[in-house]
Design a protein that fits this description.
disordered N terminus, alpha+beta, Nicotinate phosphoribosyltransferase (chains A, B), transferase activity (chains A, B), homodimer, NAPRTase_N (chains A, B), elongated, phosphoprotein (chains A, B), about 40% helix, about 525 residues
Chain lengths: ~525, ~525
């Protein structure tokens, strides 16, 4: 067996004297109802160093042409051009979302790199968009999946693309630094359980927000704890001293960011009481506590109880700050459990999602493919008994046709030499899928889906920041008709071929095209 | 809300004058029947640079203690020690496979990094081991999942740990270079379909393996194609000229590595005939062709047909080389389809697996947890209504007890201060799980599972190469009793607590321990 990278490259070296083979490849998302396209990291496309070449020499057969290794050392993307759907655009199955043009060998070498960069990013971004649709626009969503990702790099990709897909926050500080994503987190259970006694709290004083002398904060909190327990009819003897010590230490360090996890022992017997006592003391010193995190059990039921206690505290102690406390819920949230959250009464303001988001448990992989569509001006097509797996031959343009409400009604795939469809002018086309009949449509508006993003080795379309792509993704999703984006049993979105492309497909399938030579004699 | 990294660290700075908090943490694999432990990349544990600290300063509240940032800049792992199960050992649910000891803040900062490094690596390694068990020991397995991994780094992790789990080859050339994993691959369909005519084949000659003048290889192959078609009753007019040209070019470049993909058009009408013609010509020039790859359709049925044709060619043309040709199968292979392959008649020698291997579709995430077990010499325990989610308190040792056949019969978790169990001496213990009763066992052999791998910031156990860990993994799996490792409905493996650890758990659960302070007065 042989490294697949070399088989084609040697062929290229062998053909160096002939006119450079130009060919085109595209990505075609299959299997997924829709996916958000995310652009490739173009600068990373190829960089082979001398020691890489020496490694390849060591694993290839002894007789391998020396010119191949010299060729590898000189390899670059200066003759490669890419047109792509901009990052954050919604694309549908079978739409060619990326077209790569360049020398045969170089473009074949890019196959796995491009698929690796596009597949998971698109998948996790689309998954995040589904969580956003399930959560509704109001609830804030926090990504916290690093510990279940495929290593640090997988985790960073997940943080970036779930943000683009509609999440608001990440717990990954490096992603915050690199991509400007707002970072957030609360405390760990191990922080809470590392304390056992109030004697461990140090310093023990806090200066009021408005200034003044330091106040004995432990004493203040103990007083509030008594009043809270009395109000709620709870026993102070069941309150965990370590939990109270942990909250005290945290609040003294971050009086303006007090948001503890309250389920380390018992929410109702200890965690919630400790929170209220510390938060009331903070309010007394004119600080605004932020809220609580629930990490186990029935989040809906607990959030109702917590909210009730907050309201009761305000009623009893006149602390309007308690009306704006937030409740964060984090406990193996899936798309389904998030959708169920919307049906049950609850008071959860922020939801943290980890495992089900980054590992995409609903669909763990995306099957974009990278196929040859043209060689030296001649169209190429992969035929398959499964029509879904056949590719569309030739260089193409993709147009999105909008209806009078500005909603996408169809994506039209044409050969690139065809004129673009015009708004208000009817056209005939062949929808892909079961209906094979000709259809007539009059678009109210027409947009071209792909842009030239990389031309002869240079980036020709400015790379977007994560927040710019996020905005595009949300707009792109908003314009979709609700029946195309609903999570259960969505309507099929129509993707159609132009008449000209349709007849090219028919010709090649029937063997009438120059692209499908048979060996007529030996 | 707040970065969780900082909440505990500030506490640490505040406590700098008190005796350093020592605490212990362990990994406990839950949810999975068994998992292979893979060691953390210890050198990467912590390295915070100045600009990272400046980023943290920019996102933390203005009032954050300046000493915290100075502390961060000085942070290192010089006071951290780790004991761990060696990479490639089988571990079972609830066994503490890694114990980290060090200053509270540092060890808490390591939580997500360690979980991120261990979780996916262990999961994908265990998944690979299941594929190996399903495939049986004879069939060779090739990992080819890069394009579905979570980016390049996720793909590298997958290549390394699937090799350790029992795969033989990878298509990831960088993994081959970095970890010494044997690399392999065949050609892409796009390589085959990029050719359309024999005119594109250049050079057209091949020098025989034993030396001599260059032979017109196209002419030679055309002759063989005619004879093959005659033998099999096939029509040369259905043979794809482009496919033949691709195979010719490949064979001329790599006469000793001829292993083409033969399903680009039609295996029986074109691909197999082209292969036989080129392979027979190679044999005539004393080269040994390697075999074929099948990438679609019913792999079993096709492999039988391909093998029949190989035998017929040998019978007719006396080419014993055709008896050792291999057949590679690659087509969305899952653990289940691999197991089914073993039940159906087929002639597949090598199986390539991508998506289902690296994304672990059967179970997409592993839930190792990292929990506090001791603070300043006092045991800590997380209690939960779900006994599976409770942690085991205190510093511990883990022993594997073997029966008289040398097979593991039980893992025994003891407090570290207890004496190790002795071979031939009976002991009593409490198995975890449903049976709460005391059990008596007399081990024939006792081994300690964990080793000190990192002591006060230094690696103290030599890091193993991928092939050394692979060997350990295979031995570790082989010693298991078959009923513990069968893929469907395996027997539970017993993990038990020593009497002393069991009574510590009971004490803490009943609130009798010093570790569980309640607030007795306010």
């Amino acid at each position: 067996m042989l490294l697949s990278v070399s088989s084609c490259v040697l062929q290229h070296v062998a053909c160096m004297q002939s006119p450079q083979k130009q060919f085109l490849l595209h990505f075609c998302p299959v299997h997924y109802r829709f996916c958000l396209f995310v652009s490739v990291l173009l600068r990373k496309l190829i960089s082979i160093c001398v020691s890489d070449v020496e490694y390849l020499r060591s694993v290839l057969p002894a007789g391998t042409d020396a010119a191949f290794f010299s060729y590898l050392k000189e390899l670059d993307c200066s003759a490669v051009s890419v047109s792509a759907v901009p990052e954050g655009s919604v694309v549908f199955a079978r739409v060619p979302l990326l077209e790569v043009c360049g020398p045969l060998a170089v473009v074949q070498l890019l196959e796995t790199s491009l698929l690796c960069l596009v597949n998971y990013a698109s998948l996790v971004c689309s998954n995040a968009a589904r969580f956003r649709l399930a959560a509704g626009p109001r609830r804030r969503l926090m990504e916290m999946g690093l510990r279940r990702a495929q290593g640090p790099d997988g985790g960073l990709t997940a943080s970036r693309y779930t943000y683009i897909g509609g999440f608001d926050l990440t717990s990954n500080a490096l992603a915050g630094r690199l991509f400007g994503i707002p970072v957030a987190g609360t405390m760990a259970h191990s922080y809470v359980t590392s304390f056992s006694s109030l004697e461990e709290v140090w310093p023990q004083t806090l200066v009021p927000c408005g200034g003044g002398g330091p106040i004995d904060f432990i004493c203040l909190v103990k007083g509030w704890l008594g009043r809270v327990c009395q109000l709620l009819g709870s026993k102070t003897s069941l309150v965990r001293e370590g939990e109270l010590a942990a909250f005290l230490s945290y609040a003294i360090a971050y009086p303006q960011n007090f948001l503890p996890v309250i389920d380390s022992y018992s929410v109702s017997c200890s965690g919630l009481l400790c929170f209220c006592a510390v938060a009331l003391a903070l309010c007394e010193l004119q600080y605004q506590p932020l809220g609580v995190r629930l990490d186990s059990g029935d989040l809906c039921r607990q959030s109702l109880e917590v909210r009730r206690v907050f309201k009761e505290c305000n009623k009893q102690f006149s602390v309007p700050q308690f009306e704006s406390l937030i409740i964060v819920g984090t406990n193996s949230i899936s798309e389904q459990s998030l959708a169920e959250l919307n049906k049950k009464e609850n008071e959860i303001d922020v939801v943290g999602v980890g495992t089900h988001l980054v590992t995409c448990t609903r669909q763990p992989s995306l099957g974009c493919v990278y196929k040859l569509i043209e060689v030296r001006g001649r169209p190429r097509m992969k035929m398959s008994e499964d029509p879904e797996k056949s590719t569309l031959p030739g260089r193409k343009s993709v147009y999105r046709l909008l209806d009078t409400d500005g909603r996408p009604q169809m994506d039209l795939i044409c050969l690139s030499e065809e004129a673009a469809p015009k708004a208000g002018v009817s056209l005939t086309c062949f929808p892909l899928g079961l209906t094979k009949t000709l259809q007539t449509v009059t678009p109210a508006q027409v947009t071209s889906l792909r842009l030239d993003v990389f031309t002869c080795g240079q980036i020709t379309f400015p790379l977007k920041s994560a927040s710019e792509s996020r905005e595009r993704a949300q707009i792109s999703l908003q314009t979709l008709h609700p029946h195309h984006k609903r999570l259960q049993e969505p309507h099929d979105y129509t993707v159609a071929l132009s008449e000209q492309l349709h007849s090219l497909v028919s010709d090649i399938t029937k063997g009438n095209s120059k692209g499908s030579n048979f060996l007529l004699s030996n």
